[in-house]
Write a structure and sequence with these properties.
about 15% strand, about 1650 residues, seven-stranded parallel beta sheet, alpha/beta
């Protein structure tokens, strides 16, 4: 037969074939018999059987002997379609051999030399080459489905009119997808272009059922199926490199102790990686497959790191060359040699010799920067140039291995690959065959593969896949039925190129197999959508794309339809990936690859990352690309990509269940023999049998294809976990979980967390009484009758098969899956077109637009794309028929169901729970500030009331008149850019704006000639696209789609001939017309819309109220110039948002930003620093601004308050405290006698007080104090001691005092005076020191006497003893930790030195006054957030992200931002770029912004004499540095390193001169940092520092070092300035006393 088939070829072709090959393969013989007869054919044969040559050779032979057509457009006669661009290039390269060989044979035979040319057209083809093919087509065109679609939707289609043969390679890759449905319609469009349909040839190595693929290929026409019996040989091994996979995750190593860090746990990765390196080293060419790009990158990095380590270790010894085939060093203890495929003959269970693997962490791991010596990564996110280099290096032997994903799965010739390694189970049997088939790709060669499961559950599926690979039992595919999004796209493309009748279009569409069952009703619903039936004024992309003349039954495209189809066509969803380009150079070779959007969002300029095993440094990130430069040898982040993973097909799931049943039942010896026959090595066999044995010990019944097991147990929180063990795969389990969670939510009234996997479902239930055990169709011995709720639980899990489809369909609409699929379907249907095809569109923007479209489309139950999204979820993503079949099998007792209760999860359940934990692992792992912000859950209604933005608010002062006028002109199409250019634009005008008169239409057109506009209208009227009507006695023109609304709302008389579809009633016709008027106008009054509609105001007002109630309109005083009719204004909510945004933008544009130094000058002045406040009233104002700010207690009355209030007196603060106007709160102790405190206005305290700190060792005394104070009122210390003693027994004063101060520092108790705090600080061991000076006394200030009444410096007098430290780190009381009180404590930090050894005082000075619980905190988060934002804005004037960050505000800047953004919209605050370099999110009151700008100094103006220097505590809110402004940079110190750095810490000081930071004084004053070399600035700073010492704000100051160098003998300008200010030299440094 082979000879007879070859005899059909020309002599040259037959001669070349016989000289190159022994004989045709069976696949080639059958294919040539069918192809040479002109019939359609499907050729199914394993990889390496010569399928591609079988399809091409007959076409090459015909091309070589047939004359070249005279018509150049008919020269292209063979069309080869590849699903992959890389495969297309590979085929073009492989065609060179037969073409050259046939040419040589023809020359030998004296025949004319064939002139066959081949061209490639894909997304990577340069534009010049595309144009060249159109001008001069080649004989053979190799292309992709998307490129063919583009050619047929452009003038290039004329170059395809001579096509005679279409070859579709790897047909299985597209037949079961929407991409295949798209291609099927493309092929029918191609046939419609030809004189007679082209012959179609389909090729595949893995396809079932063949009949379904044949139907797909030819649309139901006769097809010859060529599927000879396979003689392909497979050598497959399943390898587990450790003896016990169950030990993974257990602690490893014996390192312990406080310095050991996190305990190391056993991992399989070091062993897998080492073993793969061994395999690569033992073979010449190896392909390693991973199931994700993420794993491919990480595995490649780790393989190279291990190879580098081995290379370095063997520098002094003989090295084994890569590819020599001899046994190499394994790097594993106990390894003696290599067995088959380089697998070590013996390996010990332990760590690998190399370092830790490239860790798979939350999102991305890290690479150490090892050079790519052994392997390189190959996947879709690596650029085509890089992929081509990798492929060539592997083929040429320069690269030992490639780690790839499915990018190398389909038919690409990778040369003589010796071995394929698969890490984890292949996603399907077909995928496994394709991947392992890359090895031994030649005819008759053996394909060798080694598979490494990742865990024990993966081992089961791997064993089954390997068995089915040997028998060729691949999964069946199903051609999608009637994908309406694909249909929509093709209809637009077809109508853009030609006019069609509906009947012709229907006939062509139904010839394609995916649309063979398309009904006329469904087709017309799609045509309705594309011709503008749905309101495009609510969503612009719903505007008509085609014109459907319903009377004539014709279709034609509107202007822009072709551009839309070409720029947004195709079926591959846009994932919003960032392109990665080299930052230098030009040309196509600059592209490196692409990164996931989220990966880029987490990256910054300067970061390094690994892509394609090369390290790159990010130089810039733009809106659509990442610019990089090479960074060889540098450590880099490993990238990650988000995407859906394929679930286990139901057929494979049934096979897994059958395998478990067969292996789990027999005796151990029989089971071991059965498993060994599957190709598992010894350790793999042990692990698999051990896994099943452990499961059987936990639950006697294994989950199989004939038994579903429902296991329940309690988790660590006491909640129930229900695990449904089922082997049938995610496509079945996903809809099952959706339905079960809905039923349980309805039954139990709780939100049930559900996670599905390939091996079952995990449900988390609240604590319900689910005891007992019950079985359905289970063995009588194992099934018991349990509690009623247990039976009910089983009933909830097992569904009625007749209700499954309805239940899943009802639930899927609210799922995240539906939202994602709707976005993709809408994009395919051209409803979400790419606005800039040449630029990336962010994924969040796509989601936002899809959400807006869905909001409109969901109001129409028959909207085709909503129905298509549901169909795709239910049929393509979910396997609902499979779930229905399973439920029927359970009901018919073919499959049993058993419910059991276990004490701990079974081994199978633990594997599933790992996936559950992974899914919810990062649920609480967001930054603390973000979680706090999310917990705020602001009430928008309450916030509007607090901001004054509720009903009745006048926005007329906020809206800019010019913005209103400009927006209204744009909406009304009265700007020249939006004027109508022709009849098409005129049709859009009446569709968007509503009925208009001729004069209105002329005003909105490019021409002022009414006759031209009238002619356009007549043209549209004759096409039945507009109608002529009368409203209010005026003639107007309206879109035909509005006919029903106008009739029902206004009683308009309609012309005859309006199609019935446009006369269908709608729910609220008048509301629709009013809403359209609102969307096309700015703020308007009721009389304006009434006049436009020709109705009375009362009727219109009722419609307006309905729209306001529905949230579609906003009511209020909106027009800046006031309402024309004196009533309220109305405005569309979207239009009002636009007006607000533009008005605010105009307001922001009025403010020019000031410099950071100007802000640093403004902030102290804004807070009154400089003594601008006076008396108790001024002090109250200072406290108001400082409410809630954390300050060191020692700085409060020595630096903070005196700097703001002139002639500050401590008695003023005590008076405010005693009067109840001010409160103080502790926030934890500082080392010594100091602590953090804050002041609060009493009225605002519930919203400004910090949450109390929980004490770890709350004792009886603490509880007694709480109980006493909890009854209300305030208590003196002595009364408190008595009450505590009465409650818990006699309690020493010292114990009560210690407990009291612990509660004070915990922020729970406060006093009515600051005297106790002053007394505590009198010990002198404080962060901020000042010289003790007598001053005015408060109510409880102790009198200084020679007897020294007060606490002893060495103890607590007679009662002493060592005090207890608080849980929060409070100072130790007693011993050396007690604080003394002497003379009059004039302020915090003061106190006399007298009395340090006095006798016991009846009431110690640090507990005087009355003590009470601080008031309760406000429970409403909205009120708290509002007050916090108001206080911060008052404190800083201009609020920035840095200022809020320095405050440690709950929720961070995100929590405050929401309130401030709402306040901006209400006109309460302004947002803008007020200060340069601080980001755009800056908020300020109008007064603060004006004062900020008023303080700007002209350039060059001397300011030193205008504003004196200021000495501030570093943590004072008036110091902007380290908060709103970054600390100025410092030069590196000698020897490298950063040296001493400033910080906002207790005890440190800053000195500002006219806003510039000049000095930073470390705590204690021994070290100074300076940022200026200006002698005048340094002198002003030194003088201010000296003045602070002399006035008593600071104690003595001894400066030892300046800028890291000794001050003594220094020629530093600062040393001279200090000496000039009065500092004198001492042996230690420069000192100044008061």
């Amino acid at each position: 037969m082979g000879e007879s088939v070859l005899d059909r070829f020309s002599p040259a072709t037959a001669d070349w074939f016989r000289g190159s090959f022994l004989a045709p393969t069976p696949a080639q013989e059958g294919a040539w018999d069918a192809i040479s007869s002109g019939r359609h054919a499907v050729v199914v044969a394993p990889t390496g059987s010569g399928k591609t040559l079988a399809a091409f050779l007959w076409a090459l032979d015909r091309l070589s002997v047939a004359p070249v057509p005279e018509d150049r457009a008919r020269r292209c006669r063979v069309l080869y379609i590849s699903p992959l661009k890389a495969l297309a290039v590979d085929v073009e390269r492989n065609l060179r051999s037969p073409l050259v060989g046939i040419g040589h044979a023809a020359a030998r035979l004296g025949m004319p030399l064939p002139q066959v040319r081949v061209a490639v057209r894909s997304g990577d083809t340069p534009a010049a080459d595309r144009r060249g093919f159109v001008r001069d087509p080649s004989d053979i065109l190799i292309t992709t489905p998307e490129s063919l679609f583009l050619m047929l939707t452009s003038a290039a289609r004329e170059s395809l009119v001579g096509v005679e043969t279409v070859i579709l390679d790897e047909v299985h890759a597209v037949a079961g997808t929407k991409r295949g449905a798209h291609l099927a319609l493309t092929l029918e469009r191609l046939d419609a272009l030809l004189e007679r349909p082209a012959q179609r040839i389909g090729l595949s190595a893995t396809v079932r059922p063949v009949e379904e693929v044949a139907r797909f290929l030819a649309g139901g026409r006769p097809v010859d199926i060529v599927a000879p019996a396979s003689t392909k040989q497979w050598d497959l091994k399943v390898v587990v490199p450790v003896p016990d996979l169950g030990a993974l995750g257990s602690p490893a190593g014996d390192v312990s102790g406080p310095a050991a860090g996190d305990q190391t746990r056993a991992s399989i990765w070091p062993h897998v990686e080492e073993r793969i390196v061994d395999l690569v080293a033992a073979h010449r060419s190896t392909l390693v497959f991973a199931n994700s790009r993420r794993l491919a990158e990480r595995l490649t990095t780790r393989l190279n790191e291990i190879w580098q380590e081995r290379t370095e270790e063997s520098l002094d010894s003989a090295e084994t060359p890569v590819g020599s085939g001899s046994a190499g060093t394994t790097g594993m203890a106990g390894t003696t040699g290599l067995g088959a495929y380089g697998i070590p003959a013996g390996a010990a269970w332990g760590g690998a010799a190399g370092g830790m693997p490239a860790q798979i962490m939350a999102q991305s791991g890290a690479a150490r920067g090892a050079p790519a010596l052994l392997a390189r990564a190959h996947h879709g996110s690596v650029s085509k140039e890089q992929r081509a280099l990798i492929e060539e290096d592997l083929k040429a032997g320069r690269l030992p291995a490639v780690v790839a994903t499915s990018s190398l799965e389909l038919g690409i010739d990778m040369g003589a690959v010796d071995l394929v390694v698969q890490v984890e189970s292949p996603p399907s049997v077909a995928s496994g065959l394709q991947r392992v088939g890359r090895a031994g790709h030649q005819v008759g060669a053996v394909s060798r593969g080694v598979l490494f499961p990742k865990f024990r559950g993966d081992l089961v599926q791997t064993a089954v896949v390997v068995e089915r690979m040997r028998t060729g039992s691949i999964e069946s595919l199903r051609v999608p039925a009637n994908p309406l999004d694909v249909l929509s796209q093709h209809i637009v493309a077809m109508c853009a190129m030609d006019d069609w009748s509906v009947e012709e279009l229907e006939a062509l569409v139904r010839r394609a197999a995916p649309f063979a069952g398309l009904s006329r009703l469904v087709l017309e619903s799609v045509l309705d959508m594309l011709s503008g039936r749905y309101p495009s004024d609510e969503f612009a992309e719903l505007r008509p794309r085609i014109v459907w003349d319903r009377v004539a039954g014709t279709l034609h495209g509107r202007r822009g339809a072709q551009h839309l189809a070409v720029t947004s066509g195709g079926t591959i969803p846009d994932r919003g990936l960032y392109a990665v380009f080299l930052a230098s150079g030009d040309g196509p070779g600059r592209r490196v690859g692409e990164l996931d959007e989220e990966m880029v969002y987490e990256s910054r300029v300067g970061d390094t990352f690994t892509l394609g095993t090369s390290t790159w440094r990010i130089e810039d990130i733009t809106h659509d690309r990442v610019l990089v430069t090479p960074a060889p040898g540098q450590p880099g982040r490993l990238p990650f990509w988000k995407g859906d993973t394929l679930g286990r097909p139901v057929e494979l799931g049934a096979a897994v269940g059958a395998f478990v049943r067969e292996v789990g039942g027999p005796a151990p010896a029989a089971a071991r023999k059965r498993v060994g026959a599957a190709g598992l090595d010894e350790w793999a066999t042990d692990n698999l049998l051990g896994y099943l044995t452990e499961q059987r010990e936990a639950i006697p019944q294994l989950p199989t294809d004939r038994m579903i097991v429902v296991e329940r147990f309690r988790d660590e929180l006491g909640d129930w976990r229900v695990v449904v063990h089922s082997p049938f795969g995610s496509p079945v389990h996903a809809p099952w979980a959706l339905a079960v969670s809905a039923r349980m939510r309805e039954r139990f009234g709780v939100d049930v967390q559900a996670m599905h996997g390939d091996d079952g479902i995990v449900l988390r239930l609240p604590d319900l009484d689910l005891g007992g055990e019950v079985g359905v169709n289970a063995d009588a011995g194992s099934a018991t009758i349990g509690a009623e709720l247990t039976q009910e639980l089983l009933d909830l899990i097992l569904l009625d098969p007749d209700e499954v489809a309805e239940l899943v369909t009802a639930q899927v609409g609210g799922s995240a899956l539906f939202a994602a699929r709707f976005r993709e379907c809408a994009a395919r249907a051209l409803l979400l077109p790419r606005r800039r095809p040449d630029r990336r569109q962010a994924l969040w923007q796509q989601r936002q637009r899809a959400s807006q479209l869905l909001e409109v489309a969901s109001r129409y139950p028959a909207f085709p794309i909503v129905l298509e999204a549901v169909r795709e979820c239910v049929q393509d993503v979910f396997d609902v028929p499979g779930l229905v079949g399973l439920m029927r099998a359970i009901r018919s007792r073919e499959v049993g169901a058993l419910a059991v209760q276990t004490r701990v999860p079974s081994p199978f359940a633990r594997s599933l729970l790992f996936g559950y934990v992974a899914q919810y692992l990062y649920e609480g792992d967001s930054p603390l500030a973000e979680r706090r912000a999310a917990a705020l859950a602001l009430d928008p209604t309450l916030l509007a009331e607090l901001l004054g933005t509720g009903d009745g608010l006048s926005l007329r002062d906020l809206l800019d008149p010019q913005a209103v006028a400009t927006t209204e002109a744009e909406l009304q199409r009265l700007v020249p850019e939006r004027a109508a250019r022709d009849a098409e634009d005129l049709a859009d005008l009446v569709r968007v704006l509503g009925p208009l008169g001729v004069e209105d239409l002329v005003a909105r057109s490019v021409t002022s000639d009414a006759r031209v506009v009238g002619a356009w209208l007549v043209e549209l009227e004759s096409a039945r696209r507009v109608i002529r009507i009368r409203i209010g006695g005026q003639e107007r023109w309206a879109a035909v789609e509005d006919a029903g609304r106008l009739r029902d709302a206004l009683g308009v008389s309609l012309p005859v001939g309006v199609p019935e579809v446009f006369l269908a009633p709608v729910a609220d016709p008048l509301g629709d017309l009013v809403a359209r008027f609102a969307r096309s106008h700015g703020p308007f009054g009721v009389h304006a819309v009434a006049a436009w509609l020709g109705l009375g105001p009362a009727v219109v007002r009722d419609a307006l109220r309905r729209l306001v109630a529905a949230g579609r309109l906003v009511e209020g005083e909106l027009r800046p110039q006031g309402s024309a009719d004196g009533g309220l204004d109305y405005c569309d909510a979207g239009v009002l948002r636009t007006l607000r945004r533009r008005s605010l933008a105009a307001l922001r544009a009025e403010v020019e930003p000031v410099g950071p130094v100007d802000y640093a000058r403004f902030l102290p002045t804004w807070q009154g620093v400089g003594g601008t406040l006076h008396g108790p009233e001024g002090l109250l104002r200072a406290v108001e601004q400082l409410s809630g700010a954390l300050l060191p207690a020692s700085a409060l009355e020595s630096l903070v308050l005196p700097s703001r209030v002139a002639a500050y007196q401590a008695a003023w603060l005590d008076e405010l405290l005693a009067a109840g106007e001010v409160l103080w709160q502790g926030h934890g102790a500082l080392p010594g006698d100091d602590g953090w405190v804050s002041l609060h206005i009493a009225d605002l305290a519930p919203t400004t007080l910090a949450p109390a700190t929980a004490l770890a060792d709350l004792g009886d005394i603490h509880a007694a104090i709480f109980e006493c104070l909890g009854n209300g009122g305030a208590y003196f210390f002595r009364t408190l001691v008595d009450a505590v003693s009465a409650a818990v027994g006699p309690s020493p004063d010292e114990a009560v005092r210690s407990a009291l101060w612990e509660l004070v520092w915990g922020g729970q108790i406060s006093g009515d005076t600051l005297a106790p705090l002053r007394a505590l600080l009198g010990g002198g061991r404080t962060a901020h020191r000042r010289r003790a000076t007598p001053g005015p006394r408060g109510r409880y200030a102790a009198r200084g006497t020679s007897l020294g009444l007060g606490t002893s410096r060495l103890g607590w007098g007679a009662v002493g003893g060592e005090g207890r430290a608080s849980a929060g780190g409070a100072v130790g009381i007693g011993g050396s930790g007690a604080a003394g009180v002497g003379g009059g404590a004039a302020g915090l930090g003061g106190g006399s030195a007298l009395g340090r050894a006095g006798r016991f005082a009846p009431t110690a000075a640090d507990v005087v006054g009355r003590w009470a619980l601080l008031p309760g905190r406000e429970s409403d988060p909205t009120v708290t957030a509002y007050t916090r934002a108001e206080v911060l804005l008052d404190r800083y004037g201009v609020l920035t992200r840095g200022s809020v960050g320095a405050e440690d505000v709950p929720g961070g800047f995100a929590g405050v931002y929401r309130v401030l953004a709402a306040a901006e919209e209400s006109g309460r605050v302004r947002r803008g770029y007020f200060v340069e370099g601080l980001g755009a999110a800056q908020f300020g009151s109008t007064g603060a912004v004006d004062r900020l700008r008023a303080g700007v100094r002209p350039l060059g103006e001397s300011t030193r004499a205008i504003l004196p220097a200021l000495v501030l505590a570093a943590c004072d809110p008036a110091n902007p540095y380290g908060a709103a402004l970054p600390w100025p940079g410092r030069e590196p110190v000698e020897g490298g390193g950063r040296g001493h750095q400033p910080a906002r810490k207790a005890g440190a000081l800053v000195v500002l001169v006219d806003g510039e930071l000049i000095l930073y004084v470390e705590r204690g004053g021994r070290s100074l940092l300076s940022w200026s070399e200006d002698p005048a600035a340094l002198q002003a700073a030194a003088d201010a520092l000296a003045l602070a010492v002399r006035e008593g704000a600071l104690g003595k100051l001894t400066v030892e070092r300046t800028d890291g160098a000794s001050v003594l003998g220094s020629d530093h300008a600062l040393a001279a300035a200090l000496a000039q200010a009065g500092f004198h030299a001492t042996p230690r440094g420069l000192r100044l006393r008061r």
